[in-house]
Design goal:
Length: 505
Amino acid sequence: MEKIIILDFGSQTTQLIGRRLRELNEFCEIVPYNKFPEQTENVKGVILSGSPFSVYDPKAFKIDLNKIRGKFPLLGICYGAQYMVYTAGGKVQPANTREYGRAYLEKIDKKDPLFSNIPIGSQIWMSHSDTITELPSDFVKIASTKDVEIAAFRIKGEKSWGVQFHPEAYHTTDGMQLLENFLKICECKRDWTPASFIETTILQLKNQLKDDKVVLGLSGGVDSSVTAVLLNKAIGKNLTCIFVDHGLLRKNEFNDVLESYRHLGLNVIGVDASERFYNALKGVTDPEKKRKIIGAEFINVFNEEAQKIEGVKWLAQGTIYPDVIESLSISGHTIKSHHNVGGLPDQMQLKLCEPLRLLFKDEVRRVGMELGMMHQLIKRHPFPGPGLAVRILGEITPAKVKILQEADDIFVQGLREWNLYDKVWQAGAILLPIQSVGVMGDERTYENVVALRAVTSTDAMTADWAQLPYDFLAKISNDIINKVKGVNRVVYDISSKPPATIEWE
């Protein structure tokens, strides 16, 4: 399969470059800056990402571009562009002021293929402290802004370009056109679609798994659900799914999800282990300890159930591309350890099968829709693996879980009834470890506070608080206080990410 390689120099928007290419139906892979693949027969082009470093920083990530330049079409973005200039003998210097935010292209070489169909005055997004001040002799300026003389360049005699702005950013209005132009330069077929992914993946799974038995842990979320349907199409009865209820799911979720899976024709084992998890969490208040206890206990329960299935050789997981990327080591440092990347197979001595490991979340949903899966599974909001444990601040008790389940159900069902659910990336209720004074029926109360959280996002890397209608919030607050015993106050979280996170713990 043809692909574009994106070399990651540590930019926060590297994933966004990949998503943009996938939206243009071109397959791509993001790899650490120093891990350029040895097999390159299917590589159509290379993109160098941005970086938090200056090219002069002793800690800056550096590679030998001679292995890439002239051999593949090349596009350097921000740091990538500056590094191309710096390594070829040009000058990169600190800017008088940090160039950050919106800018506009005042000069464009309209004959250059990278800027085909991009008008003068097009808005771009800048984010850099250094700037290119002098190009090497074989480099040619092809775009400028009011404050940045060398906003973009090409190299004579090569299919190599650099831009000091971010075409992947939403605020670069013609960024998709620029990336599409680069794909045309690379002579890409752009045949990466959900249908083609399903066809090739099912064939690969059949060849990989043959007649072996596979076990998969289901969570009710879109990633594991799509994984299950793909595997079911590939190996049928040789797949066994295990759905563990740790007692921290949403109201009625265990039975509802089991019923949905059975409608899909999946072989599912449901395990109610709620009491076991409650006992393990008794007296624990530290968020990280709660997560570790739940993770370890889940492995134990899953392992016990999997051992009851004779002849299992594979463990399937709903790992997706952001999980993989965040777990990559760049310069010896792991960005983020992830529950779906490593750990379980070693304990269970099973081979690992991850059919979605190269997909982004929105692509997983597109694949699910192509598979004909139910809307409620495909469009389900992200839900944390530890469940309501990270939405109950403090110690976990069955009574607290009950209160939060009821409040959360009123909130989520209300979003559905008001046609707001699909307009929100993620929503839920949080039970706070404080009580407040209230008045009910002329009597003083001292009961729990529930916070409502709803955010809009495209990838969860950043998120804004959802500006839900006041009359909706008023009704939900009133319903929770009137219907959920033990709650006398409801508040709404209006924090964005960053600086806050989506979940409270």
